[in-house]
Amino acid sequence: MPVHVKISSISEIDNGETYIDLDSHADTCVLGSNALKVETPYPERTAIVSFADPSVGTVNTPIISGAFLYTHYDGSQYILVIHQAIFLENMKHSLLCPMQVRENDIILNEHPKSMTENPTNDTHALSGVTDTHEMLRIPFLIRGVTSTFNVSKPTLQQYELLPRLTLTSADLTWDPQTKEYERAEAAMLNPYGELKQPGDRPEQFVIKIIATSIKQQQTLSVAALNTLQRSDRATSQGEAILNSIDPILNEDVFSELLKENRNLSATSTSNRQGLSAEKLAST
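RE: above sequence
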């Protein structure tokens, strides 16, 4: 059964640039001619693509994986891999669906540095962990009013040898028609449209797959690891409230602090044998 996706109208600037645009109107990533088609692991899946401009009509296209060559400012090069994307060969650039990228534990901040009061290096950038366990940050540029970054089409040898950052999941089936994101976001707000207090929020919606093997855990982003720790500790509404006040009030956190900072002493005037205060303090 084909997946129905929507993207913005195709527009080209034929000035030799090759880039990836962030497109919040695209509900699935789109690979253009600047992508290296590396595999087609979804032969049974196709997409019916519609555009913002209805006069363009619709296109039926396969769902594939592609790769790009990203050259960092320091000269180091990386392969960016996008899974479960649609391919439009008449597009010279590619489109990145922010939600699909975030679903794969990539930290993505779309707010321009020039419009942020206290910008940091993570402002207007995406960050993720490569397969060589390196945190890679890609700063965004602005072309017109669109957030973008420059890439090029890699050779097969570059694809096979360079470190990789996987931007979208190959395993978690991407369904842009799901209502889970709507429900998860609505559950964070009270009837007045304000953020609920931690203790009033329902248990976290788990949409993404959290890796369990040691190797996979090492490649989780910082945000994903923090989420995993929070979900592990805040197992009840009461614990969530205590955590929001002071993490030390959480029983598990307090216990760990005691173990890390154990420095007990005791004195005794008794001649009793067996279990003594000194022995208790030494355990």
